[in-house]
Amino acid sequence: MKLSNGGMIGKLAILVMVALLLCVVLARIGWLVDERQSSQHDAVMNVAQSQAGAQTLLGPLLLRHCTERWQETSGSGADRKVTQESKDFVLGQEPGQLSVAGALNQEPRYRGLFKVNGYAGALQFDAQWPSLEDLQPPAPEHAGGTVRCEAPALMLATSDARGLRLATLKVAGRLAAVKPGTTLAAYPRGLHAELPAGLSLTEPLQVQLKLELAGTERFALVPAATATQLDITSDWPHPSFGGRFLPTRREISEQGFTAHWQVSELASSAGADVLAAKPIEGLGGKGDGMVDTLDFSMVDPVNPYVMSDRAIKYGLLFIVLSFVTVGLVEVLAGRRVHPLQYLQVGLALSVFFLLLLSLSEHLSFALSYGLAAAAVALLLGHYGAAMLGGRRQGLAFGVGIAALYGALYTLLTLEQTALLIGALLFFLVLAAVMVLTRRIDWYALGRNALASGEEAGPASAP
């Protein structure tokens, strides 16, 4: 009995060591996935540096640069000194109504094997100001001072000006020349245009700006207006909506999406925050807190590296389930399996994840998964026929492996219910093992193994 128990414990110890070795293999494959993910991230950064990165737009806004000059007197009598002082400041006014509409369709870029999601399209900004009274020069803050202001200008800021392919501006129905830069220190990148001379600061103003824009992965707009409407269409079928406000209406299909945002100053302080030069993601700014944005991102839900990483997390569970299946055959059918055979089965299961990663870089994830799973299931079915003592047993083993891969694919595609399905799968396997082995007398099994060993011992002696 002691020899039998020692033999069983020894084999279990060897199998634990085999499992640990396979964990190292899985970890190494996981490191390879991380390395490829890092390379993809580098590809995104490379495209952003050579073309245009994620875009955040602010505007149009009206600005007026002013300077106050005054005299400061110090001392008295012969020590009396008069110095000229000045202070520069900027007057700003957000639109009363801002409507932005356009289409941003896919324009992917590639760096080697890596695809980078990009977009390009046309946007039209229609902005209205009920009056320009906020741009009237204010009274001097210092006694005897004077305030002089430049002509009002219109500006639009962007996080990456390289994505501004074309801009056409109409102010009060008249074309206006567009110049680079915003002239606003807090958000310097973008464009600006001086308003035509002769505009009345007490009359309403309408502005129409047409942009051809390109960017990478993410688009955002700051709702810096009394009332903002944003309408975006795209042929990207997997948008992820972010920012501080979700679309009030959206339609998503395999052909793309349409989304509509509507935000007022009652819900967002973006207009006041911009005039206070608060920070905006990608644009700059100063102080604490971030300005509200409306945005969407081009998320790839079947990213091969993310999916491979998630699949590897279930690798050890697959190996354990396969070992349990082989162990049941040993117990129920009396077929002895060597630890090296366990190791080869585990290695085959581990190679699946390497096949999945390498194939998914060239093919769709679903097709890559099917090919890798079929290859491993056929290999283990063929090997299982010899290991388990018959074609029928090998076929059953191969079918079982294929079923496990089918369950794993379900776990990967149904992310929200993955934990539930995984828990149910583990429970069902454990229940099956307990039911199949409930009548086994493990002590009798050990005695039979001991007797077999004693009978075989003298016969094998020289």
Automatic annotation (TrEMBL):
Pfam families: CreD. The keyword Membrane applies. The chain crosses the membrane at residues 314-333, 340-359, 365-383, 395-412, 418-437. Keywords: Membrane, Transmembrane, Transmembrane helix. NCBIfam families: PRK11715.1-1. This is Cell envelope integrity protein CreD.
